[in-house]
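Sequence only, no structure available. Ideas?
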Amino acid sequence: MIKNIKRLIQRLSDEDQAVRREAAERLSAGDERAVYPLIKALSDENAGVQDTAMRSLIDIGGETTGYMILPLLRKDVYLRNTALVILRELGEAVVSLLYSALKDKDNDIRKFAIDILRDIKEGVDPSKIVPLLSDPNANVRAAAAKAIGAKGYKNAIPELSNRLKDDEWVCFYALEALGELRAEEVIEEIKGLLHSRSTIVRFAAIEALGKIGSKRAADMLMSYLHIAPDDEVNVIIKAIISAGVTPEMSDLSRYLIKMLEEGDLEEREIALKGIASINCREAIPIMVDIAGSLEPSLAENEQEFLLLKDTIVSINSEEELLKILDSPDIKHRGKSLAIEILGEMRSEKAIYRLIDYLADSRRGPRKASAVALGKIGRHESIRPLIEVAMNDADSNVRRSAIEAIGNMQAKDAFSPLLEMLELEEHYDIIEKIVESLMKIDATSFLSDISQYRDNVREAIAKTIFSVELLLRLTNDPSEAVKIAAIHGLGYAGTDEAISRLVGLTKERAPDIRKAAIAGLGEARYCAHELFDALKDEDSWVRFYAVKAIALSCDNEEVIKGMKAAMYDEFIPVVMSAIDILMEIGSKEADEILAAHKEHRNLDVREKIKRYCKDQDAQTGIKEWA
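Reply:
I predicted one. Tokens follow.
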């Protein structure tokens, strides 16, 4: 209950719209005394006041509010629509009032009452609406049919069936409701409407049979499909799929393929669902070709591509995919997809065809074949894959072949991969060779790390999980190797690893100190060395110290560290500290930011100013800048 309600009501007549709006907002906590003044405020000249008054009436709620709002349904369009919104939001409290309105002499009032009851979720008895299916007004009958369907009131099916001979729009909503109610007992009557002169009724009958979802309904739709006008075919297919396609409905194939080839995205999705349901193998080349024609770099194509691929995989498609590999009509992207799927299917029948494709002139099929052969994992593909890994002109293809060999854990490939490792210059390929050698025989490969070149040891440090080896590599003569090992220790996070990281924060080389600080952050270890690093002579060590403190320490310690970081001469350190303080959002954090409202750097000042403006309304902190 609010005090001074009379004064607030008086302010609804103030000349200042801001005062009127504030009064309307505060009256939301009022009682019945505020309802009539707020109803008057619905006609205020200011839209903001109108909207606030509407929301306040909803907040007050109750049957009394509904009773006083109900007459607005007879007013102009704006007030009527506003009344509809309020009554819907008042919900169960106004249901009895709306029952009375169902008997109103005004056709519109009866229809509005039905519409509101339809949208109220709880407390509505649908049987009260059923008599209005016989209302003298067609719009009221249509609204009643729609409401009964929305409420799921199956007891009204006989009365809805009687409306199938009614005016066009009443029949339409009766069909819609019967579909929602899955009224299988009236499908013969609905079937008769498939031959109606009204296009609207025919389409509604088709959709109703689809929603009913029985085999009888699907069979009726199948029979009608063969004689239906062209503009109804896709709607019928959609309904059949909704009703439930069975594998024996092979007659659908040509319609589904046509929809797949000529339809829009939504229709193609429907067609693909049907194709999967009837195991339509003849659609596979078309699906592969469509998928191959999609530009993979465009995000909007990703969903369609995955849907096409999933549909192909769901069908027993091995033989069709093998034929595609020999087809001159399928583009290379489509063939790459076919190869990819054969690999996922572990198709042993495809092995020798895929080995042949390793020599294809196009990169896509070569790469896809290497990946697929790795998944199939048969010994006869190891030697061809090694050949590709050593000699292919494209590094992406070589990398895929090396990864496939590793996934197969092919012992025969260990020595050839070691030979490649000695000569390889591309670092990404070196990393992939190291990963594969680890999968094949990690013990032999790591038995003497010192024999390898610097970039190989670095790749090893990035790959291994052994804390013992990582500790050893932190003493490596190569700084790059040491840094990679330090990051590995951070991810490991063991006591030994943390102890070594703490020691490395004292190293002379700033990049080593930076890596050690970052490693402590990865390990979520809040050490005093992180706070010492805020005074480091190297700017980037201080920057990483800020990040590590935020990751590792509790809010009290973080705030202490950020307070010091706000005085740093290196602006990226300050900006990072601001981000962290903003994320904490506590009183202490805000006070630290407030203390730097006049910072020497413009970007810092502007960032703090924007934050203060955003926080002002939420926290009560006044704008500092």
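The two ends are 38 Å apart (CA to CA).
Hope that gets you unstuck.
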